[in-house]
């Protein structure tokens, strides 16, 4: 064999061996470096105000635990950030949480809606969910029904002091034409007790709140909510936003999962029904055969029979075949939350 070819082959082998050695060396160094960076955690002070269904503390034989939408959100966020938490302020009100954030006593508050004043003071994360305002009354109170705004006229309504939902209530009353009187309370527990004792006819609060022996007679003002930090805490905000981005990529529809976990799974939470819906329910419960009004149907008898003989015939109990739905204007469907 030609000696020049042999020497060339040997030279190439030496280069390849050198590259492989370098790669092996780097793979032994970089994982350790990356792990060290990931293990450098930062403890932040989280405003954890009492809010049934969102921030709760409970005890069992294994100790003290947290739960709720806000608590579970923080646990998911921890998986994708280098953050640990110190929970502060369970006995404090929402307004006190904001003041503690301003003064530097805490670093983070969640469940904040955007207002012009808050945007001047604080920095907002990526959205962590949506909520709306709810007007709730005692479940046995037959004076008020779902969206029966005429019956709301003259109500005494409990509200949280300084809460932005109070402005939503004022806007709803102006739009629907009813008057009301408000009584202010400092926190959720006082608000709930006022309704339970009969001190007020109804209360306005967030849909994130857990209900007990209540019915919802109005839902309005759907908006997103956020984590807020002080404007100068840009590194913290960036890390939170990166964590939320990773949650969006890896945790599926986590926002709705948390919402339904802590709101609709509560059997004591009752959505009120309109008088027409109540009449339908009574008719069904009495054994009366209730069918849609066929006078509005433009199909021929042959077309109806053809449809009923299709695969959907066993599904005659579907809602669309047994419950009439009032016609809605396009502008409502296109732009409003009902």
- Structure summary, number of beta strands: 12
- Helix count from the secondary structure assignment: 12
* Separation of the first and last Cα atoms: 86 Å
Beta fraction: 15-25%
Overall mean pLDDT: 80
Order of secondary-structure elements: HEEEHEHEHEEEHEHEEHHEHHHH
Please compute the radius of gyration using only Cα atoms. 29 Å
General form? globular
Helix content: 40-55%
Q: Quaternary arrangement of the chains shown?
A: single chain
Taking the sheet with the most strands, its summary is: 10 strands, mixed
Pick out the low-confidence regions: 3-7, 19-37, 265-269
Q: Structural class, judged by helices and strands?
A: alpha/beta
Please, could you describe this protein's structure?
By secondary structure, this protein is an alpha/beta fold. It has 12 helices and 12 strands. Strands 1, 4, 5, 6, 7, 8, 9, 10, 11 and 12 form a 10-stranded mixed β-sheet that branches. Helix 5 links the parallel strand 8 (about 155-160) and strand 9 (about 180-185). Helix 2 packs across helix 7 (about 235-250). The chain is globular, with a radius of gyration of 29 Å.
């Amino acid at each position: 064999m030609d000696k020049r070819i042999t020497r060339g082959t040997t030279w190439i082998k030496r280069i390849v061996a050198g590259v492989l050695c370098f790669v092996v060396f780097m793979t032994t160094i970089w994982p350790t470096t990356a792990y060290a960076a990931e293990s450098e955690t930062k403890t932040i002070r989280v405003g954890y105000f009492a809010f049934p269904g969102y921030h709760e503390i409970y005890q069992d034989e294994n100790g003290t635990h947290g739960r709720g939408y806000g608590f579970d959100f923080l646990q998911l966020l921890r998986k994708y950030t280098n953050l640990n938490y110190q929970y502060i302020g369970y006995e404090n009100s929402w307004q006190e949480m904001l003041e503690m954030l301003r003064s530097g006593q805490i670093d983070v508050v969640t469940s904040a809606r955007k207002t012009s004043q808050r945007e001047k003071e604080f920095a907002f994360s990526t959205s962590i969910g949506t909520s709306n305002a709810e007007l709730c009354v005692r479940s046995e109170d037959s004076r008020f029904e779902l969206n029966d705004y005429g019956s709301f006229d003259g109500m005494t309504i409990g509200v949280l002091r300084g809460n932005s939902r109070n402005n939503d209530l004022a806007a709803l009353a102006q739009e629907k034409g009813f008057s009301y009187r408000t009584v202010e309370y400092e926190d959720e527990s006082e608000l709930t007790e006022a309704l339970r004792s009969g001190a007020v006819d109804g209360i306005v609060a967030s849909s994130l709140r857990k209900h007990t022996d209540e019915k919802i007679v109005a839902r309005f003002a759907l908006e997103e909510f956020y984590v807020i930090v002080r404007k100068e805490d840009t590194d913290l905000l960036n890390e939170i936003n990166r964590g939320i981005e990773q949650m969006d990529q890896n945790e599926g529809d986590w926002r709705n999962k948390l919402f339904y976990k802590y709101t609709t799974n509560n059997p004591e939470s009752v959505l009120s029904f309109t008088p027409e819906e109540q009449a339908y329910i009574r008719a069904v419960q009495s054994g009366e055969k209730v069918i849609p009004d066929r006078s509005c149907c433009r199909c021929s008898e042959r077309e109806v029979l053809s449809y009923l003989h299709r695969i959907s015939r066993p599904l005659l109990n579907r809602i669309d075949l047994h419950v009439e739905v009032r016609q809605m204007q396009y502008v409502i469907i296109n732009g409003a939350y009902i």
